[in-house]
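Usage

Read records sequentially. Each one opens with the input sequence:
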Amino acid sequence: MNTTTSTRHASEEPDSPAATAATAATGHLLGAADIRRIAAEAGVSPTKKFGQNFVIDPGTVRRIVREAHVDADTHVLEVGPGLGSLTLAILETGARMTAVEIDPPLAERLPQTVAEFMPEASGRLAIVNRDALTVSPENLTDFADGEPFTLVANLPYNVATPIILTLLERFPNLESFLVMVQKEVADRLVATPGSKIYGTPSVKLAWYGESSRAGVIGRNVFWPAPNVDSALVAFHRTHTDDGADDVALRRETFRLIDAAFGQRRKTLHAALKKTVPAGAFETAGIDPTRRGETLTIGEFTALAKACLAQAADDDADTAAGATADDGEVTA
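and closes with the structure output:
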């Protein structure tokens, strides 16, 4: 489904950041009683299918927005707004935003909640009813203009990492994010080479930029309370794929990462014997007796470059051989 339940028009925006800041709301954010009332009125119950745990503490959502450095000049994407706790805190700053919500009843209810608690902010919010894993500049046109934006979200635990990596791949103008995820997921995203939890998410995220922990969130700020603690992860993009060659290099690098961590107890030589051609380890300056969890993103990239170069040389040799065969003359 891809329906927009609320849209913003350029004519509704203030003429200057100062004017926007002046009109930013400082009103009522959602507490536990508000959340439960809204859910009851909308006939909504948190579901495990969508990994829904709604924040019921205004202090927590204000902290998230503060850590994300959102202000009146920021263009924000929120994934999984739920009943609107974090949405209202973002709008409170004067920022303009688009919220992507997979659950139709929640997407339909959110405009009413904003109209009730922060009516002056309604013109700065667009809501799209869609699975975040399917968004792209073609169907999320608010972010198709190339202007920088930031992701601020309480991400569903079960799909947090795929959502992050998908958005970074499809939106080169996604320059930063501050997300709340399961603490275990946060630890993996920011892990460094050599640690036991360093793995595929850690290395792939490092392709795009730098990540860090930004705090721990307790279970008591959610309804229903999850069985795990949550944590905040901050990220700043330092790399954007530049053309087809860079995209090809990323894909080859990610292919090697998947293969190496698919058999993380094996040496690179054993785990990648069907993937890496002879001589590539030497070309990249990497000892094949090392394990994947010891390699930095730079080393995986160097190995990918060596593989692509070897493949190009093999293709050239094959083409040269075919040309030579075509030119043979028999008596």
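Summary fields computed downstream for this record:
- The radius of gyration is 24 Å.
- Confidence is low (pLDDT under 50) at residues 1-25.
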